[in-house]
Amino acid sequence: MEVETTFVITGVVKYPGREPEEIISLQEAIDTGVIDPNNGLYIDRTNRQRLAIPQAMNEGYIKVTSKRITIL
Question: How far lies 44's CA from each of 2, 9, 35, in Å?
């Protein structure tokens, strides 16, 4: 038996640290340069720091839901 986890991006924080937190769609994040899909990066628009997408997910900049599937 194997368990597979799939993550679905539900939103992206446009400007980390600003209140109220502004969440945009993945497509808007790509269009505005917050997400660089070619290099797998989240770009913090407040300080231009670049984070790998998994790190940005762990830090809460990329909002996700997860789904676990058991494969028999």
Answer: 36, 17, 9
Task: Give me the residue label for tokens 């340069």.
Answer: 33
Per-residue model confidence as pLDDT tens digits over 7-55: 899 999 999 988 899 999 999 999 999 999 999 999 998 898 999 999 9
Nearest-10 Cα torsion for 64, 16, 25, 60: 0
**Tokens 């980390």 -> residue:** 16
**Cα three-residue angle 24-30-31, rounded to 5 degrees:** 90
Number of domains in the chain: 1
Q: Report the predicted TM-score, pTM, of the whole model to 2 decimal places.
A: 0.83
Q: Name the token pair of 3.
A: 């368990």
**Count of other CB atoms within 10 angstroms of residue 11:** 17
